Amino acid sequence: MPFVDVNDPERKLEREATDVSSCSSQSISGDSIWSSGGRETQPWENIVGFKAHNAKVIYSTPEASIDPAWESSGHRENCWQQQVVLSLDGGGVRGLSELLILQEIMQRVAEIEFESDRTLFSGELPRTVSTKDADSIAESQTVPTVDRFLPCHYFDYICGTSLGGVIAVLLGRLRCSVPEAIQYYCDIWNGMATKIPPVRVLPGNTSKSDCSSGLKLALDRLLQDQQTQRRVRTEKGYPDGLRQFRSNPALCKTLVLAVQYDSHKHVQRPYLFRSYSFSRTVKTSALNRNPDDKTYNGISIQDVCLATSASPDYFRSHKIGDTKFRDGSKWTSNPSMELFREIDSTHAEVDCPLHCFVSIGSGKQNRGTADKALRPFSSGGFLRRESVADREKKLVHRVLTERKDQAQSFMYFRFEGPNDLVLVRPSEWKTGARKKIIRRISESTKTYCQRKDVQKAIMELADELVKYRRRRAATTQWENYVDVPKTETTRHTCKWCRDCDNVDRDRFIEHVKDAHRHKISGDPRYFEQYRAMLRESQVPSLVAMAS
With 0-12 CB in 10 A as exposed, 13-18 as middle and 19+ as buried, what is 235? Predict the structure, then answer.
């Protein structure tokens, strides 16, 4: 029986475009003033070949630009109803370019956060000390490095496919900084190359089993490192199993697109792995992937990564139970529409659940070089496939930019990436060319990011991410969202009664709401109302008493 693809990628998007929810997309506008000047070491220098470029941003403090009407019109509550999301394309080693673009965005975020009120890391809670004391603490600090500002504190959902799905897991589920993700991404490619015997290093002679075992070993080492280096805790009763893909639903959510393959019926269909539970809503349609499917609730992070990255060119299909999975980019290399539908369905109670949609591509590869390397004996097969992929990306971009709703809109940013990257096979990475490959990707991405239109978009996006984070940090929900660990230094005792003694911050705030609401001068939903109370009620820590 011949293989049947029930959803031809060139036709499926044309069908789906008519079913997309009518939220409009709109690129935000604003003036960014760029001037030349000296600058501290840039994150590009974490990668060989990336040098700091002379660009300094001059801007107004984000908080100062907030419209007072926004504070009193209910928009503050909407900062949790409307979502900020990130979509990552598949693209093999070109995923490194995606990370470098994101790193430049997060570097701008770090600069804005620090200049506005000396914020030193993205998970920082509103200070309970006076502004004067806070300024004296931070006045000697320099601009913090980008590794202190985590994408998972700025994006509610991070979605990816193929090796872009692996990056989504690193940033979303494992809550890595961008520099961490870059290092892990290179380690993954090193792991794949290490398992290839010397006899198979010749072009076109890479073993799928070698690459698969190398990727599995690299992922295992990555997770071991995470368990050793990062805090793993059972905050608020949720499991702390770092190897499990499911996570605390209050945190940044991760989606990974793979292709489910039925070898008996010769049919393939898209499958979404979710780090959270998905249930049907009034907006759930046939285009929502595997709703209510609890088959893989206990799936591991390693299985998800192996499933989405199982490209037939390099890897064996990954089997989970009785089901085979293949590379998600075989369905679509740009998972933005999958993410769009997911948000629209999951948050059906909100008229327009999107606030900002960010999509990062892996650029384009040099077709001439790639065609010779990948399919030297194929007559135009690769070029034909690339043509479909290009049309697919353009259609996704058009749908997200042109579908309009008269009442609502969301911000949409698409970073295509450089257009002069080359195809890299795992065997080529092993031959000692890895530094040259990294340098070329880094230089191409740096050139792309220095384009005036890209610089402007990065600055506008970073400014909006900071504004939105600050609005959320002013609410009591922020502490749960960033998953701040509780320590003995955050214990509080009520000074008005004996019913609340030596409790954590959440319980103290709930106690004040229930028993002493008359002490709250404003809206009890917002953290600003509790600053002074928390400072006055804080129980001295054992460290402080000992000193």
Answer: middle
Burial code of 362-397, b = ≥16 C-beta within 10 A, e = fewer? bbbbeeeebbebbbeeeeeebeeebeebeebbebbb
Topology of the domain comprising 9-482: Cytosolic phospholipase A2 catalytic domain (3.40.1090)
Distance CA 291, CA 338 (A): 13
The structure's pTM equals 0.73
pLDDT at 391: 61
What is the distance in angstroms between the CA of the first residue and the CA of the last residue of the chain? 78
The DSSP result for 165-187, as a single string, is: HHHHIIIIIS---HHHHHHHHHH
How many residues does this entry show for the chain? 547
* CATH 3.40.1090.10 residue ranges for the chain: 9-482
Q: Of 24, 97, 162, 442, which residue is the catalytic one? A: 162
Q: Residues 215, 315: contact at Cβ < 8 Å?
A: yes
Note the pLDDT tens digit of each residue in 177-206.
999 999 999 988 888 776 655 444 444 445
| Residue 312 and residue 326 in contact, taking contact as beta carbons nearer than 8 Å | yes
35-85 tens-digit pLDDT: 233 334 433 344 433 433 333 332 333 333 344 444 444 455 578 999 999
Residue 484 confidence (pLDDT) = 59
Beta bridge partners of 360: 88, 415
Query: With pLDDT > 90 as the criterion, what percentage of the chain qualifies?
Result: 25
Q: How far apart (Å, rounded) are the C-alpha atoms in residues 354 and 336? A: 13
* Residue among 156, 210, 303, 327 flagged as catalytic: 327
Instruction: Give the number of other CB atoms < 10 A from CB of residue 197.
Output: 10
Is there a catalytic annotation at residue 327?
Answer: yes
Over the chain, what is the mean pLDDT?
72
Backbone phi, psi, residue 118, to 5°? 65, 30
What does the pLDDT average to over 232-243? 50
User: DSSP E strands: which ranges in 7-140?
Assistant: 24-26, 33-35, 56-58, 83-88
Give the ranges where 118-248 is alpha helix by DSSP (H). Answer: 131-138, 163-168, 178-194, 208-229
Contacts of 216 (CB under 8 A, 6+ apart): 302, 306
Of 152, 147, 141, 51, nearest to 107 by C-alpha is 147
Residue 368: predicted pLDDT: 45
538: helix, strand or coil: strand
Q: Does position 207 have pLDDT exceeding 70, yes or no?
A: no
Q: Any idea which residue has 């002679």 for tokens?
A: 205
**What gap in Å lies between CA 201 and CA 205, rounded to an integer?**
7
Alpha-carbon 463 to chain mean position: 17
* Residues 513/520, Cβ–Cβ less than 8 Å: yes
